[in-house]
Amino acid sequence: MTRSPVPRWVAALAVAAAVLVVLPVAGILARVDWSEFGSQVTSPGALTALGLSLRTAVVATAGCLLLGVPLGYALAVMRSRWRSVLRAVVLAPLVLPPVVGGLALLYAFGRRGLLGSVFNHFGITVAFTTTAVIIAQTFVAMPFMVLTTESAVAARGTRQEAIARMYGASRSRTLWTVTLPALGPALGAGTVLSFARAIGEFGATLTFAGSLEGVTRTAPLEIYLQREIEPGAAVALSLVLLIVAVAVVAVAYRPLTRAAS
Amino acid sequence: MKRRIAASLILGTALTLAACSTPAENDSQAPRPSATATSPVAVEQVSLDVFAAASLTDVFTQLGSEFEAAHPGVTVTFTFGGSSDLSAQINELAPADVFASANEKQMEVASDHVVGEPQIFTQNMLTIAVGSGNPKHIASLADLTSKDVVTVICAEQVPCGSAALKLFEAEGISVTPASEEANVTDVLGKVAAGEADAGLVYVTDINRAQGVEGVAIEGADAAINRYPIAVMDTGDAADAAATFVAFVQSARGQELLADAGFLPAS
Predict the structure, then answer these.
(1) Angle at the Cα of B257 (from B256 to B258), degrees rounded to 5?
(2) Residues B116 and B236 in one domain
(3) With a threshold of 0.90, does the pTM exceed it?
(4) Parent domain of B160
């Protein structure tokens, strides 16, 4: 056996940390009724919810790419002293309790909200629509895209862009041919993480969007409902989301760790 | 020397983990004072754990303090929550002495741990929750069929939802809800926030929410929720539990329930 440089007490703490995370996963696995699993995850309610989750998360991820990348880029090259304040506010959804995010969205886009009351005036209501679900998912997922873009841009600097500009490339051309290709791996990781966060969104959707089958009841909300009536079905659907989460993180972190080593 | 430090650190970690895990297992249960061991001279100390449906929060809290005043040495600790959550916790052996459920189904779910027979101690029925001042002038269930009224109800699988559908059926109307929430609190929240114009909630929910008022439903007694209460074998204070159950059913207990808007048991 090779001698590890890690002190034994660090190893003990590492084991304790791993147990803390692995045990709940094992708990879900232990509660799955495998004979019922197939029918539980393919029940009409579950399929509708999974389909809705998939569609909304794809749109929300596209929204994150469209909006989050420019914001992350802007944060990286910004030279104002307000940068750290702006970054803190933009990243807040990462650490905000879910229900707080829901209330915040309600007060912005709800019928009596800042923007919602203007919308309402023109007869547009966001609440209880699939749009509300997508807004909530984009809100919570975008920080991942902003964060990965910003750190990637900051890490490589803007020297190549300066050269491209010197040779006469327009700003847009420089962005498409120099910056974005170089950011590829980071954008890939950001996309996958944003998608995973979007598909797992629960609190903001519950508070802000409502829960109607096929319209706003995404997989996490279906789990929340099933937990009240058929805990077995909730466990089965939970396992599906758990598998998605683990798969996504495994895919997203592989290029990063390889690049680091 | 080094080894001893490492050992003590590992021991410390283990202890911390042990300390962490205790409240996590019974996270909905308050610490149980073990005063019997520390003060043998005083009146015998009993800790009574009552698991009760969320709709009973206000009235049971009051009931509990009156019970404590009448029974020195007894400390009542409440765990309020959705009846289905509570029954699930009891089935996971959460130390409940008494369980008061908002419906008979969840008492049935926890029936393995019921001591004796559950008693129906009160009833509740639905009402229409609307925003303060009733801006949409909703007067009856039939008004909820209007396209201008955004209505939210519970999902049909949960008791408040099945009761709502029963009333729609009795009235011969069909309502298209904007949302079917998993519990009555989420329905109430949507109305209180102004997202929905109307929601079907229990009569007693109106008293606990701000910014909403109730519109009585004619014929609401067609869909009534019966609340059972029982002593549970998961606890360790059977005598106090039985006394508490009797107190809930006493004239004073029933008076407090009536004040909160609950209906008499029969």
Answers:
(1) 90
(2) yes
(3) no
(4) 124-224
